[in-house]
UniProtKB/TrEMBL annotation:
<keyword id="KW-0436">Ligase</keyword>
<comment type="subunit">
    <text>Homodimer.</text>
</comment>
<feature type="binding site">
    <location>
        <position position="129"/>
    </location>
    <ligand>
        <name>L-histidine</name>
    </ligand>
</feature>
<dbReference type="InterPro" id="IPR036621">
    <property type="entry name" value="Anticodon-bd_dom_sf"/>
</dbReference>
<dbReference type="InterPro" id="IPR045864">
    <property type="entry name" value="aa-tRNA-synth_II/BPL/LPL"/>
</dbReference>
<comment type="similarity">
    <text>Belongs to the class-II aminoacyl-tRNA synthetase family.</text>
</comment>
<keyword id="KW-0963">Cytoplasm</keyword>
<feature type="binding site">
    <location>
        <position position="115"/>
    </location>
    <ligand>
        <name>L-histidine</name>
    </ligand>
</feature>
<dbReference type="GO" id="GO:0004821">
    <property type="term" value="F:histidine-tRNA ligase activity"/>
</dbReference>
<keyword id="KW-0648">Protein biosynthesis</keyword>
<keyword id="KW-0547">Nucleotide-binding</keyword>
<dbReference type="InterPro" id="IPR015807">
    <property type="entry name" value="His-tRNA-ligase"/>
</dbReference>
<dbReference type="InterPro" id="IPR041715">
    <property type="entry name" value="HisRS-like_core"/>
</dbReference>
<keyword id="KW-0067">ATP-binding</keyword>
<dbReference type="InterPro" id="IPR004154">
    <property type="entry name" value="Anticodon-bd"/>
</dbReference>
<dbReference type="InterPro" id="IPR033656">
    <property type="entry name" value="HisRS_anticodon"/>
</dbReference>
<dbReference type="Pfam" id="PF03129">
    <property type="entry name" value="HGTP_anticodon"/>
</dbReference>
Amino acid sequence: MAQPPLQPVRGTRDLIGEEFRRHRAVIETARRISALYGFEEWATPIFEDTRVFARGLGDTSDVVMKEMYTFTDRGGDSITLRPEMTASVCRALVSNSLVQSGLPRKVFYAGPMFRYERPQKGRYRQFHQIGVEVLGAAEPLADAEVIACGWHILQALGVAAGTVLELNTLGDAPSRAAYRAALVAYFSAHRDRLSADSRARLERNPLRILDSKDEGDRRLIADAPTIHDYLTPEAAAFYAAVKRHLDRFGVPYRDNPRIVRGLDYYNHTAFEFVTDRLGAQGTVMAGGRYDGLVEEMGGPPTPAVGWAAGVERLALLLPQAPEAPRPVAVVPVGEAQEGPALDLVQSLRRAGIAAEIAYRGNLRRRMERANRIRARVALILGEEEIAQGVVQLRDLDAGTQERVPLGEVIGRLA
């Protein structure tokens, strides 16, 4: 009995054809725009020592507790497939001894990440992210520039019109301490109405209650205090400077005091680019300032700010898929003409012109393949054309055909 065909693992997918072209367009656009802002691309291993993410994401986060792909390798070490890349970039900064000199570092990255979560539209267990990080800059201008870079990428992709930047501040350490106390007091008064998860968070990390999706929690959160009433003058001035720079960069935004980050090394700016075009999965790019993360990786205190964006979600938002490249088809009339046809196809490729030649078939079958691969032009070589040093150039869109000297073909196609 024949075995059923193997399928991709649940939560993963193949990227083929139009889906791959959308995926590639997002990454290549982000790579190009981030380079305009001075970001250098880094690549880190797909798996890391588990401690990189346990430190970077917090031992109590849902990602660490429920979603990481963690295993013990043959050497007995605990290894985790990366669920995000900010922690990896900070680890790379420290382990490559880059934190001692040459700061700030401006880093762009793109690659696959892994989380064991329920697959849904735009969300997979193997997914892809792009992101930028500025490591070693404490100034609010750095926050504004990474946001401006993200906005520029969204504009270049043609998705900015349906996207809104929501902005908040997490303040400095004294601001957060005062705000934490206010949240504990508020939610403790409503403890019996909190979900079980939020009651546990009340003890460990009350800011994370503000991320709850539970409907009962959401009703309580609507009346919870916001951090803006607890900002120190220094924290308020930092936030005002970020907004001032964003205005200068021409980036529109709106305040959202409910954007939070639960870990202690996050501070000051927190932001999300959101859309209503993807249903419940509305966040397409999110980030903020994380001045304590490099220290968590064993380095010295180092300010940092950045964002990450889901490639799959951005690809869904693209107004249209990039067209597949249209090659030139080189068509020998018979086997005797294959040698000169191969010379021609390679000369086209060396000139930077995509060209294909069918492996087999008569003239009719080779022309059928030229149409199937959506060739824009067919260059037909028969015995007479070779003898006269010409080629029949057929425009497959217009249906016209003309004789062109072989020495002029590349110039005509270019």
